[in-house]
Amino acid sequence: MGLTLTRAAQWTTSSSGTAKLESTPLNESLLKEILEFVEKIGSKSPQEAEHVFEEPLQWNTTLVASHFKKGYNTRGSTVKSNEKDSEGNPLLQLSPPSLYVRNFSQLSKLLHVAKDRKLQEVQACLEENRDPMVNILGWNFISKLDRTRSPPEVPIDASEKDVKVKLFILLQDIDKKILNKLVAEISEQVQLDPTIVTKEVELFKQCCTEGEERLLKSLRYTSDFEFSNGCRAPLWRQALGEICYLVIEPCDGEILNITCSSAGVFLNAGFQQEGDESHYERKSDFYEDLASLLKNRSPHFAENINKQVVDGEERGRAQKSEKQQENIVHQWERLQRALYGRKKCDTCQRWRNLGVLTVCGPAEEEKARKSSVEKKRPGARSRMKAELSASYSPGHLSSQRTKTSAGAVVEEQFSESSSETEEEEEQPERRSETNPDLPSEYWQIQKLVKYLKAADQTVTVLVLCAMMELDLTKETCQLAIQDLGGLEVLLNLLDTNDIRCKIGSLKILTKISQNGFLRQTIVHMRGLQRMVNNLDSPVKELQALAAETIANVAKDRRARRTVRHHGGIRKLVKLLDCIHDSANLRANMEKDLEVARCGASALWSCSKSSKNKEAIRKAGGIPLLGRLLRSPQENMLIPVVGTLQECASQESYRVAIQTEGMIEDLVKNLRRDNDELQMLCASAIFKCAEDKRTRDLVRSNKGLQPLVSLLAKADNKQLLAAATGAIWKCSFSMKNVAIFQESKALQTLIGLLTDQPEDVLVNVVGALGQFAQKPANKTAICNGGGIKALINLLNGTNQALLVNVTKAVGACATEKDNVAIIDQLDGVRLVWSLLKNPSTEVQSSAAWALCPCIENAKDAREMVLFLIGGLELIVHLLKSTNNEVRTSICAVVAKLAKDKEILGVLTDRGVVSLLAELINTTDNRLRCYLAEAIGHCCMWRNNRASFGEYGAVGPLVRYLESKDTSVLMSTAMALYQLSKEPSNIITMHEEGVVQQLIHLTGSDDSKLQEFAAGCLRNIRLLSLANQRAACSNENP
Amino acid sequence: MTEMSAKTRKTIQTQAENLSKKVEHFTKAEIECLIQHFNSLLADQVSRGKAAHGLDRGRFRGILQNVFGLTNAMMMDGVFRCFDKDGDGTVTVEEWIRGHAVFLRGTLDERMKYCFQVYDLNDDKYISKEEIFHMLKQSFIKQPTEEDPDEGLKEVVEITMKTMDHDHDSLLSFEDFKKSVQAENLLLEAFGTCLPDPMVISQIIKCINLSFLSDVQADNVYF
């Protein structure tokens, strides 16, 4: 409570006698809070309430004896309570007009007695007991809590102390509560701050011209010294919220002595002589700004101010005004905006200090206390003294932290709340999403930028160092540097010759370029060009920093392009060339490596553009990266592998990675205990392992085992995605699958089928699809619960995932027993419905998956016919323009057509004509499955004839020219079926089929022989029949 | 160099022999080269009719300006003070070599000591705010908005002091300076350029090495 009273309450400034609490709404609410607390303490914490005060609280009451009834002993005008303390003194005593109270329960009862006058009583009590905490708990106790406070320590009884501590905590709590509430209340009221005042003053200074139109005769500050926070008032007055003092001579009337304080602007008594404190006293009302005070005091000013502004504006619009005038208008507008909407402020600066109470550490506090004690002087500063004597509560002294920690501290207090006006009113249209609180760093940066512009290289470096001391990772700082023109200065420094300035500037730029917003601005300001220019400086540190900054900035496409266009890629690649064989450069090795590391980082950022990948390759980057890949340092390896894996999307890099032996190094680094590095290596392998030789290299370098062990780090999703990806691609080689299985990869992968992000799932399922190529694994996947998870994934929408899932399901379905399980889980229907997926890849892979399902189903007919509309879908997809889809659908048709009934339905849907339309394809795979489908469709006699009618036979015969055995096989089969129709035989014969079929009978494949021979037989039979018919015709 | 008499050559060699034991960072051959350079500078001075055992302040400042590219007068005085260890107003050959050792190949520690000495204008082992202010006085170029240009400088000095003065005694001791520089190398030449530019250094080193390329042992080169 002490804190609230001394710091928050607004006391009158009258120097005579006891101070009064001003009657302001804030004081009122404060009193109410205290009242409520006292009233409730009796019921809430009875033990503490009974604690007898060290000294009674004493005040002049308006209550008289007649008010007191039950529980009091009234004798004449004096009243004593029946309750007494351990020594027999009554806990309440009234001897008019004085009232003594010795504990909280009595206080609470008293308030009850006072009824509607209780507020006045509380006020009187507080006014006369300026330090109630001391009364309640005793000086000794307080000083124990607060060592620096004087008198000697006296041992305190333990149990009593216990209660005291509790009471103390209680009081502190309520103190804090009240303060928080009040801070919330006042924080709505925005106040003046030094910048606004300075701006206003600057503006009016320009109005102090000669001639008729001038607004003022003169205007000056009383002090030329400006503190770092922009205030000019002495520090101890700043603590009261005063910012500066002005002496203004208006055109009419006498000289005005003005105080600008955070609460507003008012007239003071004027400076008569140095050391006289009385001139600080307020002599007028508060005005919300300088202009309103002047308008009020000087009619001339009021009359002319509006004219000037209007004039200025008009001239500004006409675009022929002098620069200065324009400036005035601009400033006016800004000022108006800054001041507009600001509520009338009449709160005291002390309120503001409340906001920073919590940040005040004990050390600073003590220092500040010393300094303020030094300053303690008799006389007009009685108020300050009152504050000092009450300063026992932690954090209390922050307002008095003046002399020693000077500027920064005070500034912190000011900017804490003053910021709001600044940011909210001045910049909302520019960046509404930013935090409205401007931190103290904002002002600091403003100053530093100003100095940067005016300093030579030595001071520039000092200022840059000072800037580095700020927390540049904070967004507010970063944006402040940009907004205040600092970014431009920093970038300009890169064009100078001074190495230290450049280094300092880059050190800041690397940090602030973490911010995307600033990166854009840097690119706009041609920052990248300047950084690139510094890449070939002979100073290593500079090279490294420039590269590091580029690494940060080149995160979006435009920036990466800019780097390339300015020859940055070539220069960056050059930085990688750091390993020299000569021993005499050992000492420089470290620096060289750092340069190379930064170069690699920059390349990593740049390598996200495919043209940059090409540029890196052309600049000879691949062998250099390969060399650095053998480096032992992880911080070097990360950007190097990062670049490589990024570039591995290009064929040329994949080849290089394979041929230059980098796989070995990648595998080696997989074993390092660094998640990021492992992730990047796995990702590189993922991208490269499409190639069979690469897969073999991974195996021969024993890279498969570590990949599996990475699966244990399931929490790191990026790592998991890369590792599963690498496993997937590596498992394209069956030898690799065998090794994976040795380390129980299959089980782990099945376990990863649930609750993983999609990019992991795609890879896991892809790998499972490969694993399922081995018959034993098919059962393992189905039995291990894998199939259920897989089928669940069929409900997803990720196309890459769906492709892999259908592949895996299809692979599993090649095992007869599995199909039953899949069908049971509704898998076939789901796969079938994927034929409707817009992606052709999904369509085809679903169709491929259907083939084994149909083939191995116990009752395919029932299964298929049950799927309403399923067959139409199949027939419809034959119209697809995608060859892979057509091929896969032909395969499905071939499987389906084995069932006569289904074939009937298909035929009704026009499958024959659609198949016949595909006949002219040149795609061997499609030819193969198409021929097979045609062959199977020929089970119906009508179809055989139809194929002939649609002209499919002739082209089919030409398939026999193919060298692909599977095409030959299915074609021979189809021809055999078609040859059952005499009209077809004629066409075949015309196409010269006999010669080719005879050739095929000599094939090694007995089936092929059979079909070819069967077809020949049919042809032969027909021709025999023909001959016979001819004979019979000739000889009837 | 070619027309140098055998006797002078002999003297230089002994001199170099001795100095190479005293001064780090240089090989004997390099020292010989530096001595020759010193002698030729001295000869210029002698020809103008002055005493010959060392370079005087004016001559030295000229060299700093022309060879090492230092321009700030106050800094040059400081550098002279540091070179001239015995404070006799001239830089002897040994002082010359020692100074060069720091200039060209000084470790960070040596450079810190050297810079601190340059900046400690009154040689009281502390750099005070006043000294800093004095050194930076010329550093603020123009300040159109500010009435008093010193104001900004004062502020910079304050800020710098705050970051560098670790023991909070408002004075920079060598310890303070060292700590600050180790944390941020840029603060080595915080209050004025008193070391040659890296380019200049590498040029000079090239000069030294070129003349005695054959003698330089690869593993003796630190730079």
From TrEMBL, chain B:
Looking up CDD domains in the UniProt record yields: EFh
Pfam families named among the record's database cross-references: EF-hand_5, EF-hand_7
Supply the Gene3D superfamilies for this chain: EF-hand
DNA-binding as UniProt keyword: no
Which keywords, in A-to-Z order, does the entry hold?
Answer: Calcium, Metal-binding, Repeat
Kindly indicate whether the keyword Nucleotide-binding belongs to this entry. Answer: no
InterPro entries in UniProt: EF-hand-dom_pair, EF_Hand_1_Ca_BS, EF_hand_dom, Recoverin
Q: Where is the EF-hand domain positioned along the sequence?
A: 71-106, 107-142, 152-187
The record's SUPFAM superfamilies line, in alphabetical order, gives: EF-hand (SSF47473)
**Molecular-function GO terms, alphabetical:** calcium ion binding
PROSITE patterns recorded for this chain?
Answer: EF_HAND_1 (PS00018), EF_HAND_2 (PS50222)
PANTHER family reported for this sequence? CALAXIN, CALCIUM BINDING PROTEINS
Q: What is this protein called?
A: Calaxin
Q: Which organism is it from?
A: Fundulus heteroclitus
